[in-house]
Design goal:
The complex is a heterodimer of chains A (326) and B (501). In chain A, 46% of the residues lie in helices and 20% in strands. Chain A is globular, with a radius of gyration of 24 Å. Chain A is of the alpha/beta class. In chain B, strands 1-2 form a two-stranded antiparallel sheet. In chain B, helix 4 crosses helix 6, helix 4 packs parallel to helix 15 and helix 7 (144-162) runs antiparallel to helix 19. The longest helix of chain B is centred in the first third of the chain and has 34 residues, at 106-139. Classes of the chains: A alpha/beta (326), B mainly alpha (501). At the A-B interface, helix 2, helix 3, strand 6, helix 7 and helix 8 of A face helix 3, helix 13 and helix 19 of B.
Amino acid sequence: MQRKILSSVLAIMFCVGAMIITLDAKAEYPDQPIEFVVHSSPGGGSDLFSRTVAHMLETQGLVKQKINVNNRTGGSGTVAMNYMKSKAGSAYVLMQFTSSPLSTMIRGTSKMKLEEITFLPMMTMDVNMAWTRSESKFNDMKEVIAYAKKHPNGVSVAYGSTAGSEHICAHRISKAAGVKLNMVGFGGGGPAAVAMLGGHVDFSFGNLEEQMGQLEAGKVKSLGTMTPERLSQMPDLPTMLEQGINATFIQPRGFWAPPNMPDYAVKFWEDALLKLYKSKGFQDFLKKSYMEGAYMTSADTKVYITKFLKELKVDVDELGAFKKKK
Amino acid sequence: MDIFTSLMQGFDTVLTPFNLWMATIGCFFGTIVGILPGLGPSATIAILLPLTFGMNATSAMIMMTSIYYGAKYGGSTTSILVNVPGEGASVVTTFDGYQMARQGRGGVALGISAIGSFFAGIVGTFGLIFVAVPLAAFSLRFGPAEYFSLIVMGMLTIVFVGGKSITKSLMSAVIGLALGTVGSDIVQGAPRFVYGVPQLTDGISFVTVVMGVFGIGEVLVSAEEHLKMKTVNVKFKNLWPTIKDVMDSKWAIIRGTVVGFLVGALPGAGSTIASFISYGVEKGAAKDPSRFGKGAIEGVAGPEAANNSACSGAMVPLLALGIPGSGATAVMLGALMLYGLRPGPMLFTTSPDFVWALIASMFIGNIILIIMNLPMVPLFALSLRLSYSYLYPAILLICIIGAYSLNINVYDVWVMWIFGIFGYFMKKYDIPGGPMVIALVLGPMLEYSLYQALALSLGDISTFFTRPISATLLAIAALMVIGVSFKTVRLKRTMLEDEDE
């Protein structure tokens, strides 16, 4: 009898224990490895950003699971976004958004719609600016515009990919100032910078960090930044707005998730990314890579990106129209 | 500034157990990545990057450059043994390297490629010390027009001095150019020949085509011949290059080193172009060019030296200008930024300790690599004694894993199979695969530079002939074509005369 009681007590204890353990597991999101999807190939700015964030989340103990960074490249973000669409409802897949997959989405090449996406916080802004060789006759964008007014197509500007950030910048400048610039595509920020440094084009656009070394060495001068306000890290560089050219462009960078990500997961990531954003390690990383920090909650991000895309669509359409006329 | 003292200080920094360990790990991973087709050095560096976050910049960079160099050492292995290039820069090595392996001289080819790589790595590093800054300034003078002419010259080199039949080489190159037009075009971003397949908007990946045409194609042809190909009888005396082999290829190695370093220093040209320009140079310099494609040792030594010194060359724009000239150096640039270093003209003055340590680590890396690779040569060479029923499934497996690992996607495996079948027919009709894959790499670059040059000159075509560098390159190309044409005409004549008699 006693043995029976003992064994039933033990059995009950075992069951309760097992229940507690399972309850624990239920409560504890995430309980399996996370996937970070990157739309570009290893080594680019987006890839480095994702890998750095993943590494910091792990080492700072904000995410207790392994984060695998997978490059799902193809069709400037199309493949990655179709993958995200196929993962609808999943709480274990995140993707970084930058202007490249965003502008791909506007063109409607992927199955993903803006309305379906679960937005997570925005983290940073990439700063774009115009620059030229120190030997150049131009010292700021005003002079470029004045010259271009007299010589249509007489000023050449290098951009990276079609409808990419540099192309949009060049287009916005030419539209705002009402001048015709000779825009030449170079397939990437690197080659575009080479063309500018070699004096093969008059100026080019790019992210701030790409030219820091040259700027400090005095080999390159800035013609102005595309930000609404002066940069916190380089306050002596004037913006385009200050030079009387009504053109701004900043590239938002943050995370989004597949359609219908469960609310508890969204909450978890909002929390984790905010903690990460405030950490010293991440702030140092921003300083080193010359990005401007710009944390926004998921809801704010959604509003911001929707507006951003509306403006971007105008440019992309115009660039298409502009080319057909050629 | 005393270079020698600085370099010694650099060695002082590098020669810590931890840094040597980093270099060894880097060399090991690099060699493995080089041997396996598909996963390139840039992807490897990016994936291993988080491992280096806790280290100082010097240790991290030592590991990354070791991976980069290691990949070039390893790249030739599968090219020579089984005709599957591990990466773009090793395509040219298949032309003669694989033939040497078929003749039982695989060990010699592997050994020479390791020795050539070592020499080029060391000399290229010296080059980096002495001419980095002026060379970087010169390389900037290459604008779109110059690149266009350089590529035209390179393509013609391959076609006209490439194979047995100029017609078939041309055909192959044109197919490659056509494949190169698939994807979004640079001018409008308009999709071309995409047929609604999203992956095709990025174009056809060069690596999958190479693995298909060279690897799968080879296996299919042999399978049809009922595996009648005898296993290669590897004699023990052919496991290592002899003194005579080294003497035969010494000029090729020296020429390849110089060509590679100069081409590598051009941002965007890279080791692939360097390797086949070197092949063209070797063929042009040879007393008897007909030996090429049949196992000429210079055809392995030159390009292998070139693709290694091109790596040192690619460090020139990276360190002196902060411009990445290749995928792998682009990743390094990103990493350097993370460490708060700013590559650019000031790097040599602001962080001299780092630069000299890096240069010292290149010497060390090359020494580690030669120690690592040479003992493996006989082992790899003996692997050819395996019967084909074992070897071919292994090749298929390597190719499938390689294609899948590109983007973790089965799509690339399918593309590879399609090109495998394509390669099979090319082999049947004796159309060389080399010009095709090289045209596939260079075609888009050719098209971009043509468009850029014409956009900058506002449509004036004379820009190619009025710019001195561009005009010189085009003149060389023209002379080559004329020379080869005369030769073929003369040959035809003598053949006709012989028939008349």
